[in-house]
Specification:
The complex is a heterodimer of chains A (481) and B (471). By secondary structure, chain A is mostly helical. Helices cover 61% and strands 5% of the residues of chain A. Helix content of chain B is 57%, strand content 5%. In chain B, α1 packs parallel to α14, α4 packs antiparallel against α5 and α7 packs parallel to α9. In chain B, β4 and β5 form a beta hairpin. The chains are: A mainly alpha (481), B mainly alpha (471). Chains A and B meet through α13, α14, α16 and α23 of A and α11, α12 and α18 of B.
Amino acid sequence: MIGAVATAAIDRPGAAQPGIVAVRAYWAAAALLAAAIAAAASVAHPDAGAVALARAFGSAILRDRAIPMHLGAQTFTAPSASTGGVGWLGALAIELLARSGRATAAFATIVTALATFALVGARAQRRAGWLFAPAAVALAAACALGSLGVAGGIVTAAFAAALALVLERPGPRAAAAATVLAVVWCNVAPQGLLAPAIALCAALEAAIASAPAERRRWAWFACAGTALGTLATPALLAYHALAFEGLRVDRALEGIVAFHPIDVAPLAYRVGFMCAVLAAIALGLQRPASVPLFLAAALLALANGSYVVVFGVLAPPLLAASAAALLPRVAAFDARSASAAGFCAAFAVVVAAAGAWWASERPAPSAPGYDLAAAVAQGGKPHRLLCADVDWCDAALAASPAIAVFADGRVAAYPPAVLKRQADTVQLKASWRRTLDRDRVDAILARKNRSFAGLVGMSPGWHEVASDDAAELFERAAVTP
Amino acid sequence: MKFAWLVLALFGARFVTTAIAFPPGDGDLYWQRMLGAQVLRAHAVPRALGPESLTAPYAPWVPQEWLFGIAAYFGSSGLGWDLFSGACALAALAALIIACMHAVRRGASELAVAVCAACAGIALFESFGVRAQVAAWPFLALLLFALDGEGLWPFAAVAIAAVWSNLHASAMLAPVLAAVSAVGSGLDERGFGPRTRRLALVAGLCALAICCNPFGWDLPRYALGLFDNPIKSYISEWKVTDIDDNSFAFGALPLLLGAMVLGTVGAPGDRRWRDGFVLGVFAFLVLSAARNVNIFGIGALPIVASALTRRVPRFERAPQGPPTDADRIAAWALPVGALGLALVIGVKLASHAPPATGLANAPLAALAKMPGEHDIYCADFAWCSLALGVPHERVFLDGRADPYPRPVWEDFVAVLRIDPRWQAILAGRGVNTVVVKRNSPLDQALAITHGWRTAYADKEYRLYLRAGART
């Protein structure tokens, strides 16, 4: 897979001609790397909250033949708040995949992961030659640990990798392709807002590197195209504000969502990000033009750990280029071989199919907190639910249309005042009991063994009815309006 | 250094003022004073907690900060305090000055040194205080200076490590840094060359030097034990570094990003891998725990400043000519001007010193006047350091933190999180006094729990006594 894209990518004049054994060994290693990625993707857990929300959203689109533009009656704090329909295409895709069966969904996820890293490999091969490309892919994969499941961030990484590859060589076709990619990405997820940022970095790279005027011009056209592409969503001009909040990097959401890499993507941070940092300290960026994209990706990863995977697809090819600049003789290794690349691609597809079959056969992984939220919703009682982790409420919304929640994972749509009430309540600020009474909350899903759960459990009228590894469910008998 | 002096003056003013005029923000100072008094009284370093601990009396303890404790004892108040706290501030400033001189010796330009010193100074900001680790900072800067030197300079690291190990367990870094320097040097020399051999020997000697203290091998063993010690998850300073930490975001992060962009291996010179390995250790540390932001600043300053000078034309050194009159005047005027600026800033800052409230000083002072035996649970364990040595008071957990066994920590956190067992834990451990922040979760829980009464309250804190406790 890596080679299939890479073979078509570039011609490197003057490359050394290695022996056939070395080329075969190279492609065998690439095939093993692809198999490892496929295996990791097949055992990865889906992002339960995002999947639940996307499925609820997607099924509503299919049912109503229209995109819901407001939060609706499923929230009692801001039913008329606008969602702008952000992410409608991604939600539709996830729902259709889920309806087509677990094997198909797993296969699509594994193939997306493989395609993403193939794009990373192709970009690294363009910049650093054949030998450093698999190293860049391995580093990128390490940054994706924990993000390879359905809706776990791999789609964002795929779009980022594709856009970065397209923008490697600015021209009319690249500008058009980047614009189309941006339009699709913006309709798939709020992370589409990153498209013009990546295009801007590419344009700056062309400018700093003093690329030919023609290329510089097209790089800026691509930047403008991707910026305009962000307007081509149902939210129109409102997309930017909604998508920015949807990126979950705004510290105004402190206490509502997790930001820190160690909380959001601990394995990717400890292994992939740390290795990338150490590699960067050693290698540096031998091309100053690469600095804007590298710094932007690093800061994004530190701002929210869910973007360590994006850092992983953007930065390693730049580091591979540095390694190639320091070791030009190694970089000159040429592993071009259409047959070996074809074999590698076929092998990757077979491994993906096997992984998808295995993933569909094993029991569905449990998702503490989410499962309890779904159970509350399916319990039949008309509840007004507050979740300490807003993403848990996504599972409740997906499980039953009858339930209403205080706030859910669509944090971008909720008014700041509602989010502040949510955070103040969970953090037990002075007004928390008033908020529960005023909003007539009659069920609370609190994090297990935390102060909020302890105090709710001690409060008159509230009693614990269920718990799992992550959450405790409290209900109250009667509410005084 | 002429631009750097201005930067150093700003930080020096801030350090001196906050150290002397501001109340101590760290509860450790209180138990360190008690430790100092114990050492002076018994002419020996205690190796166990005392009966002032309610939950773990006589638990084994490695009081690594014993020398600092003696200084803290003498610097309790008046002129002693001014000298002691001022010395801590000067230690922080000395660390910056040594790191700047190190950068200059490596060929960094004035501008690069000034910019990196500003970042390193910010990196020191949040953890600065009258604290043992601050007193250890200049030893780190000196160690790096020595390891990077020619000839016999690296051997000075051995003496530095020995003294450092009597101040703080961070001396454990000495053999580690010497060892990675040796490995990096081996790669630079492409073999076991003379510099590599020297550094390898220094690494071995440093490993022995850090045992030159009253604890011997127990100190490195204690430091190694911290790596997988679960209590770290309960201490905010050990939390993983976050971009929201100002010292990281505006101090260490620019240096880290600079190091990542500039790289070390591709640079000319004979320190490429050595710099890479040393910086790699500091990068690992800074991304692992917030408490390492400061040492990253000190460690990265010389390497990043010299890399900036080499790689970025704007930071290149100006060609050296014979000194002009203007240069001679500037050489004196800038440090003197910087000192004047520091004094002005210091006086200004000192006039805004907040009152001593951050360590539950008032409720604990009120408690000391209440009759009876008090077994105290402090919602922030550092507060309980103020109760150490107070007659008739014992504490659940205090700022000494490390020697308390894991079950004590688990119980401490369970109470703080209002775990279903919290009341049973307080009763089982015999706690009859609780100090909490007003309106904190535990305050709210105690307020609705039968058997507790408010004995003291102010705008920030509340003190609860168990109803029926002897008072």
